[in-house]
Design a protein that fits this description.
The protein contains 8 helices and 7 strands, in the order βαβαβαβαββαβααα. With 212 residues, it is α/β, with parallel strands linked by helices. It has a single domain, classed as Spore Coat Polysaccharide Biosynthesis Protein SpsA, Chain A, CATH 3.90.550. The termini are far apart.
Amino acid sequence: MQWTLVIPLKPLAQAKSRLADTAHDGVRPDLALAFAQDTVAAALSCPAVADVAVVTDDARAARELAALGARIVPDAPGAGLNAALAHGAAAVRAARPDGAAAALNADLPALRPAELARVLEAAGEFPRAFLADAAGVGTTLLAATAGRELRPSFGAGSRARHRASGAAELRLGAVDSVRQDVDTGQDLRVALALGVGPRTAAAAARLLIPES
């Protein structure tokens, strides 16, 4: 089964405010872009992924991510994360009505294509399925097979909401790179230990990351 991934990305100037203890205002946009670039590059290298659509209104991010091979979908609703995901899913379904679609976080800089392939293979066994984040509270991936609505409900506590919506929770081992999103300095330390992509590694090398 081939998948289209929908990746939302807010304007870089507004991204990753919770990294303020680790990266100052002048650095965070570069760091957020690096996360997204490494996420998109890894996703496009996954054999189960047919294409990647990034929903964003940030001109710089759109230019850089399109250069990697992503399709850019303008965030026409401008009404937050879940509206952007629903809009992106509708756009990709218009192009591939019989395709499977999955929402993926833009902040998975340690993402490994082989682990993503395992998650998508497991997701294909259910009409809708999701993967919880490393903290066990949020969601990093929500998938819907052909003919099924994505029905995203990302944000704080999304694991419980996606489960309540009827999506199957994927309980897989050895897919840490697909679970490890980065919101805080501690998250970044864990991602660096897993092994991040080259753009995040370069951006993080400019930071003084405090010990936990």
